[in-house]
């Protein structure tokens, strides 16, 4: 893990590279590090940084240059505790129990950690009372929760009113409904309305692009592709995190769906708006969950060799039995 220190940050470009926000180099090319620490969130917005989470990240980390600790308020000894991969059981379960899953951190400073979650579930957040603690200011104190649903014998996740959201990577088609939220590149969309014909077929879908370059409402009939290419029905060429053809919206039977087109940065479903509880979202093996800067992947306690990301199955007792017998 890279150590944050004043010695290895000599310019604003170094600073943005550390935060993986180099797309904003042009916006901040007239600033030095001392100027950066004096800017407000409104100043950053006027300079062209549209995404609120990125503005907050820049502001928080710029304070590092005038304090003795990093923005996560972690000491070197605290950070070193995360350097060795390990498995953490959130509750004391028998190793023979089939009612558990493994949550593995595949990126961020928790990379290499695995968490075994059983029937009592696990709460995730910054607060010390959480079963999975993420000491990151971009994670809410009580961010999200994984539950075991006894009736369906499966695991599910719900956002518990976080500020920055809980995201699920789309690995297959996902049905959209009024109120659905999804992120592609730097842009976040909300489904405002779906119009149906008299026989119940979806005619058009209305989206609001409320975060990212040029927020605006969109009305899409039948379907389209979202991406940077000018041939896309929704072309957002100012978003460098978008692929040329990133994802597609289409109608089938009585619903609208969204599907990723093997994009570089993936398409993500956001479980709920800022500060609101979400409905429970059923988890499947191979699902990836983004909480702040941490990316988790769901797997069974004993991962079968034949299981791939393209072939996902519900996280349930029956499915574990079928792969372990």
Automatic annotation (TrEMBL):
Q: Which domain of life is it from?
A: Eukaryota
Q: Do you know which PROSITE patterns this protein is assigned to?
A: FHA_DOMAIN
User: Where would I find the FHA domain in this sequence?
Assistant: 122-173, 224-269
What name goes with this protein?
Answer: FHA domain-containing protein
